[in-house]
Design goal:
Oligomer: single chain
Number of domains: 2
Strand content: 15-25%
Order of helices and strands: EHEHEEEHEEHEHEHEEHEHEHEH
CATH class of the largest domain: Alpha Beta
Length: 273
Amino acid sequence: MEYKMIVLDLDDTLLRDDHTISPCTKAALMAAQEAGVKVVLASGRPTYAMHHIAEELRLEEYGSFILSFNGAKIINCKTNEELFSSTLSPETVSRLYDISRQEDVWMHTYVGDLIITEANNQYTEIEGDITGMQITEVYSLLEAVTEPVVKVLMMEDPERLVVVEKKLQEELKGELSVMRSKPFFLEFTEAGVTKGTSLNHLIGKLGITREEVIAMGDSYNDLAMIEFAGLGVAMGNAPDDIKEKANYVTDTNMNDGVAKVVEEFVLKQTVHA
């Protein structure tokens, strides 16, 4: 199979634990782009927190794309145009806020390039560290959210969040997409919006089939795109239940797992073509 697109989750997949791309992985991805393969970044991160990685991989030059907010936005890196955008109304944010209080978990969302929360906490600090976004404490989150937002996060100890996730997936079924991006992050987007549905939308515009796509990830918010792609790849550091649903399991994010897939399934095929 000649693959035309490589779709990559960022944290714990493309990026090492220090949030950098290894030289080996970067070289493999640049070689793939030189061979005409699109490299697409797909993350739960806000768009703002993905631009510097897109710039490092020169996605603008190669006419590629960012799928941010778990697929709730698709950005053309060359033109900065939004090809797709999904949001949650202030009324939905209010409902999720009430639920977060009932379940006694932390909650934050995004306004512009700011992370908005009523009370800063260890998990929001992690999000701020990952994304490089400023955290702003507000007296009333509901008063601060006057326009639609792209997504909402609830956060707590992983054991507690597993229970909340199962409950809310059932309670909000058909209304919102509910999935964990990290053991302590539970993310809410518009119903039906996942990295998989966003990827389907993108390839439809580009004339690429799902069989021609490689998608790599490590967590539950990656599962939809892993199952959608022609070659769905789980990282070696992914949970076992993600690995079981992938077509292929590669090495870890700390041991050039992405590069090994690109070399095996893209660059070798280019050489032999």
